[in-house]
Write a structure and sequence with these properties.
The chain is an alpha/beta fold. 31% of the residues lie in helices and 20% in strands. It has a single domain, classed as Aldolase class I (TIM Barrel, Alpha-Beta Barrel), CATH 3.20.20. The longest helix has 13 residues. 42% of the residues are buried.
């Protein structure tokens, strides 16, 4: 099978997704059970002081949005310090965090004071028993209450839902009703086939097109332009004015407009979610590399950014899980 990859034009600015660690207290069947690599040991992870060192270099390299992810990033107790490190080194840049919300409530104010702008909370069901079946032990009502409270703290609060056929695809309208009630935008996400949980993915796969059709059975759905060409979510609006997003990266890749870079917990810099390996930015930093050397590595990685998405390149799929790569 071909391993040719798709080069595309260099974007005007970059969004960096930073995986703070791979661990999560949940066991969503499309993620952790398919994990194919060991977790990064604590001593190999980047520290808040090392992120502080990288932040101004990332700014010089054109990164204008940073999203902290995992695993579950709030399993790290130093996340407010990490946020503060990015804020100090990248003033004016948009800083966001994606979390499952279980540990969010106690640190909301600390995150805001550290400089966090936006929060996205991942919830796969609004029904308590189903939530536990799909994600793991946790109180979805408490998470939802925290999400609503966060609206008064952060600039933007969103919810993500991975839609799964026969598991939660009957809740699309429930999520839209929640969105209308609390003015929290929902993103419905197509399950990605990362090659590590193939059987489960195949059994529950529900396309973005099917999501639009399902919602359209009960309300008129209008397609909207993306807010930014590089945004992963295609936007839609219902007849009663509820805006929602659909991320269909498996059936409708958006590689040609992608501006994303990914930094793993170990500090490997990748230009594509499907890319294996990456530029060893973190190991070089820990080995004593100068700012000039680190910046040079950054720029080389940017110049080599390309798509490794199997649908776009016909490349052989290298199995990974979202827990390995950072959600």
């Amino acid at each position: 099978m071909s391993t040719v990859s798709l080069q595309h034009p260099r974007p005007a600015g970059y969004t960096l997704r930073v995986s703070l660690l791979e661990q999560c207290q949940y066991d969503c069947p499309y993620c952790l059970p398919g994990s194919v690599s060991r977790y990064t040991p604590n001593q190999e992870r980047l520290s808040s002081s090392e992120y502080a060192r990288l932040a101004p270099l990332l700014l010089r390299a054109g990164v204008n949005r940073v999203r902290l992810t995992g695993g579950e990033p709030l399993l790290r107790t130093d996340v407010p310090r990490v946020v503060a490190a990015f804020r100090a080194g990248m003033p004016g840049v948009s800083l966001a965090l994606t979390t499952n919300g279980q540990k969010l409530r106690p640190v909301i104010e600390a995150l805001r004071e550290a400089g966090l702008d936006d929060i996205t909370v991942h919830v796969d069901s609004l029904k308590p028993e189903r939530y536990r079946d799909l994600m793991g032990e946790g109180d979805v009502d408490d998470v939802l209450d925290t999400v609503v409270n966060a609206r008064g703290v952060f600039n933007h609060v969103k919810m993500n839902m991975v839609v799964q056929r026969g598991k939660n695809d009957d809740e699309l309208h429930d999520f839209l009703a929640f969105s209308a009630r609390h003015h929290i935008e929902v993103r419905f996400i197509e399950l990605m086939n990362t090659g590590s949980a193939v059987d489960y993915t195949r059994s529950v796969f529900f396309t973005g097109k099917q999501m639009v059709e399902r919602i359209g059975q009960h309300t008129l759905v209008t397609r909207l332009p993306r807010r930014n060409p590089s945004d992963p979510a295609a936007l839609y609006r219902t007849a009663d004015g509820v805006t929602f997003g659909i991320i269909a990266s498996d059936t409708e890749p958006f590689c040609t407009d992608c501006n994303r870079l990914r930094l793993t917990a170990k500090g490997l810099l990748r230009g594509c979610l499907y890319q294996s390996g990456g530029a060893p930015l973190g190991p070089a930093l820990k080995a004593g590399a100068t700012d000039a050397e680190l910046l040079s590595m950054l720029r080389v990685a940017q110049s080599q950014k390309r798509s490794f998405h199997p649908l776009m390149t016909q490349a052989e799929r290298v199995p990974f899980s979202m827990a390995d790569a950072g959600g």
